[in-house]
Amino acid sequence: LLSFSLLSFTPLSLSLSLSVSLSLSLSLSLSLSLSFSLSVSFCLSLSLSFCLSLSLSLFLSPLSFCLSLFLSLSHYPSLSIPLCLSLCFFLTLPLSLSLFPFLSHAECIYRKRLSIDGRQLNLELYDPCSQACEGKSTLTDQIHWADGFVVVYDISDRSSFIKAKAIVHLIRELNLGVAKRDADTLVFLVGNKQDLCHVREVSREEGQRLAAESQTQFYELSAAEHYQEVVLMFSKMVHNASLGGKAKERRRRPSGSKSMAKLINNVFGKRRKSV
Ligand SMILES: Nc1nc2c(ncn2[C@@H]2O[C@H](COP(=O)(O)OP(=O)(O)OP(=O)(O)O)[C@@H](O)[C@H]2O)c(=O)[nH]1
């Protein structure tokens, strides 16, 4: 940057220094966000983001050229470099951070179509933020929406167990009137990271006690080492939720135009259900 600036304050040298500084600040902020959000090593994320920022700098150079032309034509060319550098850094940091909202601490909805007991189901799996996320829907909204719940804590992290306890109680409170009877089959409490039992902070008995108190089913497993247990647990949840859905349908008998619509749908359409 210094060599570029020393040449002269021509638009070309300024635009070069600007695009390099833009790509550098972008790569730095990208690598910071990558290493924080993905827990990727800083060196790896730095090299990845540096490659990306080099290619980006090709697109940025016309922009920086125009900006530097404007600044060097103005009365204060000496101010252009520090001004642009600080502008670049502060503008690219939020931009690059906003590129990765989905990597961590973000909520997601996964969708999958599957067939259970000959019935077609559209499964929607909502994974909420573990941290408080601004502008995102609250857990309470989602609790009203869902047919089943899998509340996961980390057996090597007591704070996650305390959060799980609060969530289980919230689910029980909000669903008390609706599905008290089904709660034990539709709420699963899962202690994950069983492979880390040497650094365990939450005993199996504590998990079992909470599950018994809140009438939920209890599992302790390791998603990292035995993914089959996770598959089994989710299959059981989907199965229970689809049975629960049947029970709910039986309880809430539609009448009038609704039952006519249901009849038409049963005769002419393939019934699907969202879980
Ligand atoms: N040792 C071990 N690590 C695991 C296991 N399951 C997940 N992890 C690790 O725990 C970390 C967090 O996992 P995530 O799936 O991102 O957890 P999360 O609760 O969805 O995190 P947020 O994105 O903050 O909501 C990752 O580094 C995983 O590799 C497990 O069974 N054993």
UniProtKB/TrEMBL annotation:
SUPFAM superfamilies reported for this sequence: P-loop containing nucleoside triphosphate hydrolases (SSF52540)
GO molecular function terms noted in the UniProt entry: G protein activity; GTP binding
PROSITE patterns in the cross-refs: RAB, RAS
Transmembrane segments: 12-34, 46-73, 79-103
Catalytic activity: GTP + H2O = GDP + phosphate + H(+)
Keywords, ordered alphabetically: GTP-binding, Hydrolase, Membrane, Nucleotide-binding, Transmembrane, Transmembrane helix
Enzyme Commission code(s) on record: 3.6.5.2
Pfam families: Ras (PF00071)
UniProt record similarity statement: Belongs to the small GTPase superfamily. Ras family.
Name recorded for this polypeptide: small monomeric GTPase
